[in-house]
Amino acid sequence: MYEDEAMEPLTRFDEARTWSGRFIPIEDWFTGGWAIEFVRWRGRYGVLRDLESLPWNRPECVQVLLHDEDDDCFALWMFRDGVLVEVGIPGTQRFHTPKAEWETDPHPGVLLRTDQGEVELRHSPEHVQDPRLAW
């Protein structure tokens, strides 16, 4: 099975998913790739779980780039022990700030460049960070 066959189920709309939309192929990429755009992070909850469930030939080669509108740059996610995990990028840090009391959905935090001068956000203590995966 080629990777485009593995990815095929996520290229169709499916109302049963926890996230909305579908992946479309990125044209003219030699290695193949797919893209999807979400409106804010609430609409993408569960997308990493669905990507993990696909029958990849070489999961160690799968790279997922996620960019929230508040992030300074894309975050890189790769398979480790069968699970997609965020891979640290030099010069960046994900900052978690306390979520509002009315928020019920998990919050991804904000990925900021730390190599461009002073970062103004203060990282929340671990006990107030949301441990649930936002994607």
Structure notes:
The protein is mainly beta. The protein is 8% helix and 20% strand. It contains 2 helices and 7 strands. It has a 3-stranded antiparallel beta sheet. It has a two-stranded antiparallel ribbon with strand order 1-2. Strands 6-7 form a two-stranded antiparallel sheet. The model has no long low-confidence stretch (mean pLDDT 83).
Summarize the structure.
With 135 residues, the protein is mainly β. The protein is 8% helix and 20% strand.
Q: What is the first-to-last residue Cα distance?
A: 26 Å
How many H/I helical runs? Answer: 2
Instruction: Please state roughly what percent of the residues sit in beta strands, choosing from under 5%, 5-15%, 15-25%, 25-35%, 35-45% or over 45%.
Output: 15-25%
Order of strands, main sheet, comes to 3-4-5
Helix-strand makeup class = mainly beta
| Number of beta-strand segments | 7
Helical content, roughly? under 10%
Oligomer: single chain
Question: Secondary-structure element sequence?
Answer: HEEHEEEEE
User: What's the mean pLDDT score?
Assistant: 83
| Regions with little confidence, pLDDT below 50 for 5+ residues | none
User: What shape does the CA trace take?
Assistant: globular
Largest sheet, strands/sense/barrel: 3 strands, antiparallel
Radius of gyration: 16 Å
